[in-house]
Amino acid sequence: MRILVFGAGSLGSLIGGLLAATHDVTLVGREPHVSTVRDQGLEITGEIETTTYPDADTTVPDSAELAIVTVKSYDTGEAAQALRAADPDVVLSLQNGLGNEESLSEPLDGAVLAGTCTYGARLVEPGIVGCTGVGTVTLGARGGGDSAVAERTAGAFESADVDTTVAADMPRRLWEKLAINAGINAITALARVENGALAEGAAGDVAARAAAETARVARDSGVELPDERAIDRLEAVVETTAPNRSSMYQDLEAGQRTEIDAINGAVCERASEPVPINETLTALIETWERGRNLRS
Ligand SMILES: NC(=O)C1=CN([C@@H]2O[C@H](COP(=O)(O)OP(=O)(O)OC[C@H]3O[C@@H](n4cnc5c(N)ncnc54)[C@H](O)[C@@H]3O)[C@@H](O)[C@H]2O)C=CC1
Ligand SMILES: CC(C)(CO)C(=O)C(=O)O
């Protein structure tokens, strides 16, 4: 399959690098990473050790069967505009947060699939990406239901040994992942603690309330997600990722913009009643970003 990965940072390089073992892959990213990959191949280290040879460029090729989007959520609009030149048959977002599929489907004609990914990735240096956790890609029709396009796409991932599940309930799965990120990311970033610090105590209670608020907004949006399920999933991820620094904590440490708008901000935006925990977390992270001139 001719695949383009838009956003060859940590996750895009890992997934694109793995897919390049059996597919014709182009990584679209920034210098000096793309030149290094073109000249020397992409080295994957950590829990998976291999080198593959995707093509790499700073602009999109003129066609693609599948475009996988792995930019940060605040860059999705720009990615969608850039992808118009490739006119991909199918577009798949593996990003965190809510709203990415909507931003992609507006300017693009191809089918847009929703996805989540529990692989862990970190760009170590140009040409080298670390796999910090072997996980699963879950994908399916963005509105839910069966999808032959999703089955074909999953087949392409499986043929490259990327563990993949096709789900007929992607809206619920996106909200479930959102509840986990809404509970963990901003709190660990503000308190400068690893995920495991939320296993007990006051911060853990606040995280559970953020996840429960998210579940309530999901139900108001027509997605069946009980509070208990959202909190159970949150607690399970806190336990399995206990030593991790959340992506938002890492963004704050690096002085970079966060995905707050697509996580806690997305809960606030869709809420028809007050969601005080999500509102507070959003306001605090936004204030930090403004102080750093990271948002207008
Ligand atoms: N890193 C991880 O382990 C995981 C990340 N995610 C999600 O995946 C998404 C991406 O995360 P990361 O890979 O960590 O971020 P990242 O910042 O490492 O990668 C994004 C890359 O996109 C590139 N990019 C942005 N706009 C571009 C443009 N117009 N042209 C070319 N390149 C462009 C950036 O330069 C950057 O290298 C986020 O939504 C994140 O929450 C989800 C699961 C795991
Ligand atoms: C699941 C979790 C919270 C793992 O750290 C994550 O997705 C993130 O950090 O963005």
UniProtKB/TrEMBL annotation:
Its EC number is 1.1.1.169. The keyword Transferase does not apply. Keywords: Coenzyme A biosynthesis, NADP, Oxidoreductase. Residues 3-142 form the Ketopantoate reductase N-terminal domain. Coiled coil: none annotated. It catalyses: (R)-pantoate + NAD(+) = 2-dehydropantoate + NADH + H(+); (R)-pantoate + NADP(+) = 2-dehydropantoate + NADPH + H(+). One of its GO terms (molecular function) is NADP binding. InterPro entries: 6-PGluconate_DH-like_C_sf, 6PGD_dom2, ApbA, Ketopantoate_reductase, KPA_reductase, KPR_N, NAD(P)-bd_dom_sf. It comes from the Archaea. It is an enzyme of class 1 (oxidoreductase). Pathway: Cofactor biosynthesis; coenzyme A biosynthesis. Residues 172-286 form the Ketopantoate reductase C-terminal domain. Gene3D superfamilies: N-(1-d-carboxylethyl)-l-norvaline Dehydrogenase, domain 2, NAD(P)-binding Rossmann-like Domain. Transmembrane segments: none annotated. GO terms for cellular component: cytoplasm. GO terms for biological process: coenzyme A biosynthetic process; pantothenate biosynthetic process. Catalyzes the NADPH-dependent reduction of ketopantoate into pantoic acid. Belongs to the ketopantoate reductase family. This is 2-dehydropantoate 2-reductase. It comes from Halapricum desulfuricans. The gene is apbA.
